[in-house]
Amino acid sequence: MLTLPALRRSTGNLLLLAVFFGGVLFIGVTRVQPLTSATSAPAPIDVAPAPEISHPAPPFTLHTPDGATVALADLRGRVVLINFWATWCPPCRAEMPAIQAAFAQYQPQGFTVLAVTAGEDAATVTAFLQAHDLHVPALLDTNGQVHATYFASTLPSSFFIDRRGVVRAIYKGPMSHSVITGTVAQLLAEQ
Q1: Do the beta carbons of residue 184 and residue 98 sit within 8 Å?
Q2: Domain-embedded: residue 151
Q3: Does residue 42 carry a pLDDT above 60?
Q4: Closest C-alpha to 55, from 145, 170, 144
Q5: Is residue 163 a contact partner of residue 187, using CB atoms and an 8 Å limit?
Q6: pLDDT digits over 131-166, tens only?
Q7: Does residue 17 belong to any structural domain of this protein?
Q8: CA–CA distance, 149 with 49 (Å, rounded to integer)
Q9: In what order do the strands lie in the sheet with 111-118?
Q10: Alpha helices in the chain (DSSP H)
Q11: CA-to-CA distance for 84 and 16, rounded, in angstroms?
C-alpha cells in the first residue's frame, strides 16, 4: 500500500520525467527547420562526389611506386579499370592474374588499369608486382584519400570508367576473368 509520502515521491518522479522528455521533444522539434524560400541551403562541402554509375568518375592524381604522377583526367579517351587492392588481401591477390591478363589483351585497344593501394610503401608494392609478374600500373594512395572518395572500404573494389570519364560498372569483391574481359570488351566497343 502506498503511503502519502511515497505517493508524493513517485508523483514527483513522474513529473520530473515528464518535464525532461517534454524538454527533449521541444528542443528536437525547434531544431528542425523546413526549407522555405526564406531559408538558404547549407553551404556546399568541398568534397568530390561519390562515384555512381552513369556519373563522372571523381578525379584524382596519385604517384606510382617509382614517383611518376598519374591523373585520372589524363586518361580520358581510354577505358580505365580502377582497382582498389592491397598486397596482403587474399581476394585481391586471387583476381590480379585476371586483371593482368585483361590488361595485356586489351591495352593496345585503349584499355588501362590503375591498381590503387592504400597505406603500403613503394618497396612493398614493387616487390609484390615483380614476384607475381604483374605489369599493371600501380598507384600509391598514401593518405587513403582516394579510397575514401571512392568508398572503397571493401577490398578489392573495382570501377570501370568509359572513354568519356563516366563510371559504368562497380564491383565489390573479386571479379572473374570473364567479368573483367566482358566489361572491358563492351566499353571498348562503344565509340
Answers
A1: no
A2: yes
A3: no
A4: 170
A5: yes
A6: 999 999 999 999 999 999 999 999 999 999 999 999
A7: no
A8: 7
A9: 69-71, 61-63, 138-141, 111-118, 79-85, 157-161, 167-172
A10: 4-31, 90-106, 122-131, 145-149, 177-189
A11: 54
**Residue 114 domain-assigned (yes or no):** yes
Q: Which three cell numbers stand for residue 69?
A: 604522377
Supply the pTM of this predicted model: 0.74
Phi, psi of 138 (to 5 degrees): -105, 145
- Say which CATH number the domain at 93 has: 3.40.30.10
C-alpha cell at 35: 526549407
* CA–CA distance, 171 with 108 (Å, rounded to integer): 24
For residue 83, which of 159, 164, 143, 187 has the smallest C-alpha distance? 159
Report if residue 124 sits inside a domain.
yes
Cα separation, 134 vs 49, in Å, equals 31
Q: Which residue bears the cell 524560400?
A: 37
Q: What is the mean pLDDT of the chain?
A: 82
How many distinct structural domains can be found in the chain? 1
Which residues span the domain enclosing 179? 61-189
